[in-house]
Amino acid sequence: MTDTETAEPATGAPSPAPDFSGWTCPAPLRGQRRVVMGHGGGGALSAELVEHVFAPAFGGRALSTLADSAALELGGARLAFSTDSFVVRPLFFPGGSIGGLAVNGTVNDLAMSGARPAYLSCGFILEEGVEIALVARIAEALGAAARTAGVEVATGDTKVVEAGRGDGVYLNTAGIGLIPEGVDIRPQRARPGDVVLVSGAIGAHGVAVLSKREGLEFEVGIESDCAALGGLVDSVLAVTRDVHVLRDPTRGGVAAALNEIASAASVGVELHERALPVPDAVANACAMLGLDPLYVANEGKLLAFVPRAEADAVLAAMRAHPLGAEAAVVGECVEEHPGMVVARTGLGGRRVVDLPLGEQLPRIC
Q1: Taxonomically, which superkingdom (predicted)?
Q2: What class has domain 70-178?
Q3: pLDDT band for position 58 (50/70/90)?
């Protein structure tokens, strides 16, 4: 049988080759009657949940860009507005805690639109029976992270659920910030010819959380990279405001973030696999656990898509900042294979880097 023929029907004539262009994976939302863990993982299942349930129900122009934060016009000012919920387990992990994660996750979403974060709200959902001392530790960590990030927790809420109906402590934070004049950063602005940069080594957060949760020990300790990226973004914008896209690769890692951008802008992305800064300890841990660092969550790194003419200056500005010392050029936008991410391997081959279905590591943020 040739590549363009299938089994012959009763007439004896060969059937036409199947057209794969309209095929979809049966696993995502339309094949699921109930929510599964993967729907919260930032991959294909999450995207289908948003596309088929939330976006049609909510509507609205501001939601349509589906960026890390919404850019809003209000009273002559441009505001960035974002919200996020945090259900990480364990509550404290090497390099951070749910409190610091809640602050940094939200201020980073604001910073990815070029905004200067200003105010946060904070909601605590507590399980009956949790120790007050633990709640106080989390609150102190959250307050310290807010001060470090230069934002104020301006309002909040507390709810308590019955014992057995929660997991100790969940947090929700929302934030607002001002977008400077002349800044237009969103996924749809990626263009062929753009250079793709990453601000530093990837994969540490997901591996750090997993190691603590599962009681794993590695030869070299791995700590979360959890950090507020507003200062790093300010350094980049001080060099040029012609930044097309910024994205912090959290759930689903670098792979999910690049796929989302490629899809939103209808461009292809060529990734230089060998140029990706992956610490040896993270690479070894991922190899032992059967994980791909490209899909592991980060909480203190960003991806930047910038015009080629600005790439050297942006890279230098990143490397001059403490949170961007290991910044690197890792790829470029291309006209070929729009909506798809392709990695050039160290052996000279190519492989498709798909959007993950769910998430390799649940409960990492």
Answers
A1: Bacteria
A2: alpha beta
A3: confident
Phi, psi for residue 7 in degrees, rounded to 5: -55, 145
Residue 157: per-residue pLDDT: 97
Taking a C-beta distance cutoff of 8 angstroms, is the pair 227, 300 a contact?
A: yes
Amino acid at 299: E
User: Average pLDDT over the chain, rounded to whole?
Assistant: 88
3 state SS of 86: strand
Confidence of residue 173 (pLDDT cuts 50, 70, 90): very high
pLDDT score of 27 more than 70: no
CATH fold, domain 187-352, is: Phosphoribosyl-aminoimidazole Synthetase; Chain A, domain 2 (3.90.650)
Q: What pLDDT is stored for residue 31 in this prediction?
A: 63
Residues 339, 286: Cα–Cα separation, whole Å: 27
Residue 278 corresponds to which tokens in the numbers above? 């992956």
Q: Is 5 left (phi over 0), alpha (psi -120 to 50) or beta?
A: beta
In this chain, the answer to whether the domains covering 70-178 and 187-352 adopt an identical fold is no
Q: Identify the burial level of 310 via C-beta atoms within 10 angstroms of its C-beta, where 0-12 means exposed, 13-18 middle and 19 or more buried.
A: buried
- Helix, strand counts (H, E) of the chain: 9, 14
Tokens of 138: 């989390």
The span from the CA of 319 to the CA of 328, in Å, is: 9
Best CA proximity match to 88, nearest among 175, 167, 173, 202: 167
Helix (H) or strand (E) holding 268: strand 268-272
* Domain range list for the chain: 70-178, 187-352
**What's 136's DSSP letter?**
H
